[in-house]
Amino acid sequence: LHTAYRRQRQMCIRDSLYSLIVPEDALTIIFTIFATCLASLTPVATTKMLSKIFDDLSGFISGEKFNNDLQEFMKELKWDCFSLAFIGIGSLIFGTTAVSGFMKLGERQQRRLRFSIYNSLLNKDFQWLDGKGDINGKLVLINRCIEEYRSGVSEVSAIFLKNVLTVISLTVTSFIFSWRLTLISMTTVPFITLFSLILMSLISKYTIKENEYSSELTQLLDWNLNSYEWIKIIGGRYKEAEKFAKISENSTKSCLLYTSDA
User: Fold this and answer.
1) From CA 261, how far away is CA 200, in angstroms rounded?
2) Cβ atoms of residues 166 and 94 within 8 Å
3) Which of 16, 65, 97, 153 is the most buried (most CB within 10 A)?
4) Is the entire prediction scored with pTM above 0.70?
5) 227: which DSSP letter?
């Protein structure tokens, strides 16, 4: 049963970014999502407070509010400014808490993934290990991929969830204040979505290329370090250095294209 569970677990790892989450993470997830929801309401709260400040200012100038009493207006303005400060402090606290929660989840999952990989390697027989000549280079790439996986679970998930919740809250607020103007503004959503999909496809393309070039670099470096005597005998160090420089340049170009699209 334990072996069957492990096989099923390994199959799930290929399907989901959060497949390594266990029931013990439930409390952290709930607390993190709650903090993210509160942090995502910051733009809405700030917008409403700024709107109230300008309404009070406009009402004081026109005489519709405060009966031209400057002290009463300044008293109300003081509490509005304090409210903005409290919103900022709350945003800092809940935003930091949300990011810390996602970071904690990412660290837990990457630790479980490392243990799973290393246990899998330790369970391999010597014949399998002897057939993998560049296993050190592959381990370097695996560790790099695990770091990208950790980043996807932690920082990227935190930013994505907060942005989604912020967009939803701002959209609801916009419909409440002016649904006609909101509908007009939403006509640009298909163009933004199409442009985002194009950029996402380019990011995915150059990310795959950059990983492939990095894999080639690692394999080439591993082969040179293990066969340096043979390279010195045939005088191929300049050719190997040129090959390394070319692959490194292609990897750098792919990385720059990836970051520019991102």
Assistant:
1) 8
2) no
3) 153
4) no
5) S
